[in-house]
Amino acid sequence: MQEVILYAAPASLYSGKARSYLIKAGIPYREIFPRTRHFHEVVVPKAGIMTLPTVELADGTVIRDSTRIIDHFEAHEPRFATRSPRQSVVSLLFDVIGSEGLLRPAMHYRWNFPEANEAFIRRHAEMMAPKGVDAGPMAEGGMKRMRSRGVALGVTPENFAGIESYYEGFLELLDAHFAEHGYLLGGKPSIGDFGLIAPLYAHLGRDPYPVRMMQTKAVHVFRWVERMNRPELDTGEFSDSSRDYQADDEVPETLVSVLRHVARDLVPESLAAADRINRWLDVKSPVAGTAISKDVGEMAEFEAAGMAIRSVAKPYRFFLLKRVQDAVDALDPQASGDVLDLLARCDLSQLLDVRLDREVGWEGNQEVWR
Ligand SMILES: N[C@@H](CCC(=O)N[C@@H](CS)C(=O)NCC(=O)O)C(=O)O
């Protein structure tokens, strides 16, 4: 197989998702920082906008977006397809949780512990400067932009304690899971593992302050992060040497506990964001094919995990959530009943009814309103 070029960066959240997939899938790739002339003059025009990760295939095809990159390779050869109903739905749910649902802890632990993190982050930001560009001011600008993105997501001082208690609870439950299983659904990674690694690698599993916390409080989660970045399964500590998902469509109880915890944040935010975006759609009525920017410029307000949060409402969450809903809708009545029972036990049933009035689709590399 010819080498894939992965435009990515070590400190970038979504890069970690695509990189881990390429590693685990055994797809040869070369990672390049997004600062070459070729990237700006050839790749970005094909990508439409510049985000990381973006890949360039040997034939010049460019694919932007971590989910679509994984979809592209899975469509050619499904390496991580879960075939059973409950596991498939849980796998897609963890893609939503990782790609969208843990952004507040990721941003908080990166930006609000400057004593431990600042120099490390600054060095990474400077690395992004193209040759001949003064790295200092460029890094400063990039850091300011990303820090303010955290604030827009609801990472504000009155919520710091709440975000910490939510994340610590999450980490403890996830650690109990990874003490018994190599991956979310057993002995091999699923699409959900790739979603979850997004916040848990570059930010929470690599920045100095949160990685220390993970190493001291959640060593099994730390091991999973390490494992997700290694080509082999790397599950030597488990006596059960299964190299596959759990038998009989089993979803471990340890994972149900994680999902119940996550529901406290994921459900209220999804309900509020859908409502906000639907009201916006009602007023704006964008023509089909209109490009979607990262958020619609509107704030969703909601109570989650004991916090009063104001966060930008992002259509991307609903692109991912619809994949969960479509998977459930496609099941036969018996399987659907099993999945609904599971979601009810996880306090996640409401997620199946949260839908945008317009679908998020793709044209080329761009998210558009259908
Ligand atoms: N939905 C995209 C999001 C990609 C994204 O936002 N990446 C960040 C870096 S982790 C980025 O490129 N940000 C650039 C910017 O905000 O200008 C994906 O999954 O790849």
Provide key terms for this protein.
binds glutathione; 2 domains; 370 residues; Glutaredoxin; alpha+beta; two-stranded antiparallel sheet
Order of helices and strands: EHEHEEHHHHHHHHHHEEHHEE
Listed once per kind, the bound small molecules are: glutathione
Mean pLDDT: 96
Secondary structure category: alpha+beta
Shape: globular
Describe the strand arrangement of the main beta sheet, using strand numbers.
2-1-3-4
Overall helicity: 40-55%
Determine the number of helices (DSSP H or I, runs of at least 4 residues). 14
Distance between the termini: 35 Å
Describe the structure.
Helix 4 runs parallel beside helix 9 (191-201). Strand 5 (299-304) and strand 6 form a beta hairpin. The strands form three sheets. Strands 2-1-3-4 form a four-stranded mixed sheet, with helices on both faces. It folds into two domains: 4-76, Glutaredoxin (3-Layer(aba) Sandwich); 85-107 and 160-369, no CATH class. The protein has 14 helices and eight strands. With 370 residues, it is α+β, with helices and mostly antiparallel strands. Bound molecules: glutathione (GSH).
